[in-house]
Amino acid sequence: MADDKRADAWKEAEALLNKGKTEGALEVLRDADPEGTHATTLKLAGQAVYMKAGKSGSKAEYRQAAKLLRDSVRKNPRDKQANSLYNQLRNEMQDKRVSETVIPRMITDGGTPTPAGIFALLATLLLVIAGVQAVNSQSDANLPTEASMVVSWTDNSGVEHTETLIIELYPDEAPIHVENFALLAKEGKYDGVIFHRVIDEFMIQGGDFTQNSGTGGHAAKFFGYCDGIAANSASDCAETAYTIPDEADNGINHAPYVLSMAKTNAPNTGGSQFFIVDKDSTPSHLDGLHTVFGKVIDGKTYVEAISQVTTMSQDKPVEDVTIVSVTIPEEGSSTSWWQFW
Predict the structure, then answer these.
(1) For residues 308 and 200, is the Cβ–Cβ distance under 8 A?
(2) Is residue 123 classed exposed, middle or buried when 0-12, 13-18 and 19+ CB atoms within 10 A define those classes?
(3) What is the average pLDDT score of the chain?
């Protein structure tokens, strides 16, 4: 009986996918096979996320789809449809220069070294011979690609909300900003901090963990700048003066729901404050000045809702809009296939 219900769920999910209803299909699959034990579940889920990635262009969603389809093929190597879809996805990811995983695969499923694996071995030997050591810097390959932000607020009707924003991060385009944001999040610096500035049809801004007013906050560590001025070492300035260099020339413009670094008018003055662009807002005057380092990919309606709250002087919400927490998932930490969403 359970198998019949699961088969019916797969048919329903396929019908929804044919109509382009990806979220509905995923919900059906989660209910029918919450542990993702069946190859067909993973194949259909991978197809759904692949469709989402094609619309959003999200690197994180492309990688999620690849993992689901890869797991499906592993469970049922004879499924021609899963194999074909997986190969199609990999080709598209290659064309878009999206790596299948954040950390390149060193060996194939058969145990032989991949080109990346061979290169890694050669590179390791060269580094040992040269005596080169990587210090005081996190490898781009190890930087996170996603963050989960829990936000609470009270709307204009007095109803309290606590919701989650899923943010895709851009370690390839803005590695320093992503590292800084992740370090601050892991240290709990954003927990309990408010969005101190909310402007409808423009953006919502927060992240000032020292003053909660927009006048404070600083970088997570010394990145070579003190209040925007290049410095030789951390001893050249107080911790509260730590700022990060701009990466605003990364080719990513300000569009709805992007995550960008707030700073003064001077270059290299970003610290901990950030803003999320509101719906239908395209503040092109910020392009090339402020660094975009991520985008909200789930929870966009909550950004819109927050932008509607009543504000007072200096655009501060009358009722606090609070960041409850910012979580950076560890690589491979998901315990169920559907926890990608």
Answers:
(1) yes
(2) exposed
(3) 88
Helices (H), 19-98: 22-32, 39-56, 59-75, 80-95
Check pLDDT > 50 for residue 341: no
Q: Which CATH superfamily is domain 2-95 in?
A: Tetratricopeptide repeat domain (1.25.40.10)
Residue type, 41: T
Residue 206 near residue 303 (C-beta atoms within 8 A): no
Architecture of domain 143-340: Beta Barrel (2.40)
Where are the domains positioned within the chain? 2-95, 143-340
Q: Containing H/E element for 295?
A: strand 292-298
- Which amino acid appears at position 29 of this protein? L
Among 64, 54, 62, 48, residue whose Cα is nearest residue 40? 48
Distance (Å) of CA 59 to CA 95, 332, 340: 12, 16, 13
The maximal CA–CA distance of the chain, rounded, in angstroms, is 70
